[in-house]
Write a structure and sequence with these properties.
The complex is a heterodimer of chains A (218) and B (420). By secondary structure, chain A is an alpha/beta fold. Helix content of chain A is 52%, strand content 14%. In chain A, strands 2-1-3-4-5-6 form a 6-stranded parallel beta sheet, sandwiched between helices. In chain A, helix 3 packs parallel to helix 4, helix 4 packs across helix 9 and helix 7 runs antiparallel to helix 8. Chain A starts with a strand and ends in a 6-residue tail after the last helix. With 420 residues, chain B is an alpha+beta fold. Chain B has 11 helices and 5 strands, in the order αααααααααβαββαββ. Chain B has a 5-stranded mixed beta sheet with strand order 1-2-3-5-4. In chain B, a hairpin with a 5-residue loop joins strand 4 and strand 5. In chain B, helix 1 runs antiparallel to helix 3, helix 4 runs parallel beside helix 6 and helix 6 runs antiparallel to helix 7. Chain B is rod-shaped. The chains are: A alpha/beta (218), B alpha+beta (420). Chains A and B meet through helix 6 and helix 8 of A and helix 8, strand 1, strand 2 and strand 3 of B.
């Protein structure tokens, strides 16, 4: 299997340096690019499998917009941050980020998340599960009672195995539930990858607006 | 007037309950709502006592007059004595009611005035010659004063007007009354009514000022207590910062240390956790107090080699202090168990409240302590005094509960909930 190419976008130069040092011994992951901003990364014109994106970049760019731009470049996005700022974490997941982990995790956790995302999977950390399970926004995706139980148990830090046992379901089912929850969020975000999508999205929005004012609008 | 231990919450950001002395302030977060109105109550009581005394003394003159003049001036003695008897009985009942309530009930005033007015008319009809021969005349003075003492201006003005009309009506129907005597009685009634009204207005005005001052004082005391509590919280935070981040940074700044030393890195990570806990809390409250406690516990466990990930969401701001303490202590004990038994060096502490959607949920706080270590079979029995007493016992004392979930090779979760 070919090596996974990785890029890291973070304004913390020490972290970028540390990451290089960290990933050097991991033979199947190649850190091929680092940049302080999304614009600087895109200017490098490299193609990678996975981009590690710092949630709050110092240039003040909108986290969800960063995810959208990176997805357009063909990479999967794994969001990392020091503080799980719920609002922006939710926005990046809805924008289509494949996962979220906090910077206080150990190397094996990071490596496993990158590998998983590179294979097209999702990386749901307990931190992300915690943010999702405490999402009280009015328009949030609706979860089934079983999905809520799995999410809540996984958010407590329990292994997926223990989560499945506690919910009384099989390991594989628990994994499916987590992936389904993640997909619900991504679907709710309705990512606009292509122009055609964008047209569709505008039409949907207009329908919604029309629905709000049926009689008064000409 | 005031009882119980008052608490000030809400607007004061749910600080630890503060006793506001003997002055009660309004419910949740509104220390400016006047509840202490005891000066007004005292003024009304004083007025009630004076009116009662006046009422009893005004019963005395008419029988004395009758005794001295041996029934002269009274055309219909039977009716006159009946009127006097009714007024005596009513006055006694009225006085008892007023003294037990320590105020003149406003709804008693129309009854009092009405009955007296009827007696004035009948008394005037029964009497002749002079005003003092009317058995209700003297008592009408006390009734006029009492209606002023009930506390309303319109009430007392109406009462005086009704009593004067009734007196004049009685005088017109009586035989041989002189208008000079009637004018004397009318002026006395009006004068006493006016005097009573002015004095009572003045007393109630002073009482209102005193009450307002007391309320302001209570609010000021509450503000000062809140400020003091904020200062203490700030001092605690400074001390924590000094003990953690500042001392770590100072040590590093002095140089000569290997920054890659696992111990140093562990300490930096713990300090970062502590700062993270501070950043994610918004203001000072019991909920954030728990958050701070959990971060501090995580930090102290880090020194023992355990990495604790703390996550909090929707923690109610008004958790009772004993609950915060029980939850913190139980968490520390559960983490000690992780160190002793799990065989891993990471643990997760998550705390969450019901959130806006499930605000009617009886459980207001759920706290879990989870590791991904070797676990155990909970059915196998004996799992140490730690869990039974330090965790379950602590929670039971504050009305909470603890549950454990574990399986061999799958880690352990201790779940604390409050209330049960």
């Amino acid at each position: 299997m070919a090596d996974v190419t990785v890029a890291a976008i973070d304004d913390d130069r020490m972290l970028l340096g540390g990451l290089q040092f960290w990933l050097a011994p991991v033979t199947d992951l190649d850190l091929v690019a680092t940049a302080p901003t999304v614009a600087a990364y895109l200017a490098l014109d490299v193609r990678v499998d996975v981009v590690l994106l710092d949630l709050n970049l110092r240039d003040g760019s909108v986290p969800a917009a960063n995810v959208t731009r990176l997805l357009a470049s063909g990479a999967a996005v794994l969001v990392v941050s020091t503080i799980p700022d719920a609002e922006h974490v939710l926005a990046t997941i809805e924008a289509g980020a494949a996962g979220y982990i906090t910077k206080d995790n150990d190397l094996p956790v990071l490596v496993e998340a990158i590998r998983h995302v590179a294979e097209g999977g999702v990386a749901i950390s307990p931190e992300l599960a915690f943010v999702l399970s405490n999402d009280h926004r009015p328009g949030r995706p609706q979860l089934s009672p079983q999905e809520s139980i799995v999410l809540r148990a996984y958010a407590s830090g329990a292994t997926l195995q223990a989560t499945a046992r506690r919910a009384g379901i099989a390991y594989g089912t628990a994994r499916q539930y987590l992936e389904r929850i993640k997909r619900k969020y991504t679907d709710a975000g309705r990512p606009t990858h292509t122009k055609l999508d964008l047209v569709e999205r505008v039409r949907e929005d207009r329908l919604e607006l029309d629905g709000l004012h049926p009689p008064s609008q000409p | 007037m005031v009882g119980g231990t008052p608490t000030i919450r809400g607007a004061l950001h749910g600080l630890t309950p503060i006793a506001a002395g003997r002055i009660r302030v309004g419910p949740v977060g509104r220390p400016d709502v006047p509840v202490a109105r005891d000066a007004r109550a005292r003024a009304l009581a004083l007025m009630a006592y004076v009116a009662s005394a006046l009422r009893v003394t005004q019963l005395v003159p008419w029988p004395l007059t009758m005794a001295e003049f041996a029934g002269r001036g009274v055309a219909r003695p039977g009716l006159a004595f009946a009127v006097y008897g009714v007024l005596c009985a009513w006055s006694v009942a009225w006085t008892v009611a007023v003294l037990t309530r320590r105020a003149i009930p406003v709804r008693l005033v129309p009854v009092d005035v009405g009955l007296t007015a009827i007696c004035l008319v009948l008394g005037g009809f029964a009497a002749e010659a002079t005003s003092w021969a009317n058995p209700a005349a003297a008592i009408a003075l006390a009734v006029a004063a009492a209606s002023a003492a009930a506390g309303t201006v319109t009430g007392s003005a109406t009462a005086v007007a009704v009593l004067i009309s009734a007196y004049l009506g009685g005088a017109a129907s009586g035989l041989g009354q002189t208008w000079a005597a009637a004018a004397y009685a009318v002026c006395t009634l009006a004068g006493v009514g006016l005097l009573a009204a002015v004095v009572c207005r003045y007393l109630l005005g002073q009482a209102a000022i005193a009450d307002a001052t007391a309320v302001e004082l209570a609010a000021a005391q509450a503000r000062s207590a809140a400020e003091q509590s904020r200062q203490q919280e700030r001092a605690r935070q400074y001390r924590m910062l000094h003990d953690t981040v500042l001392s770590t940074l100072s040590t590093l700044a002095r140089g000569g240390l290997d920054v890659n030393d696992p111990l140093i890195r562990q300490r930096c990570a713990a300090d970062a956790d502590y700062l993270r806990g501070l950043i994610s809390s918004d203001g000072v409250s019991a909920g954030n107090h728990l958050q701070g406690e959990l971060a501090a516990i995580g930090r102290s466990q880090a020194a023992l080699g355990l990495r604790v990930h703390v996550h909090c969401a929707d923690i109610p701001v008004d958790l009772p202090a004993p609950v915060v303490r029980a939850m913190s202590d139980a968490t520390r004990e559960a983490l000690n168990n992780v160190i002793k038994h799990s065989g891993v060096n990471q643990a997760w502490v998550t705390a969450f409240g019901p959130g806006p959607q499930q605000s009617r949920s009886p459980v207001r706080l759920t706290l879990t302590i989870t590791d991904r270590g070797r676990g155990f079979d909970p059915m196998a029995g004996h799992h140490g005094l730690g869990l039974r007493e330090s965790i379950t016992g602590r929670l039971r004392e504050v009305g909470g509960a603890a549950a454990i979930d574990s399986s061999s090779g799958q880690g352990t979760t201790v779940e604390l909930t409050w209330p049960t």
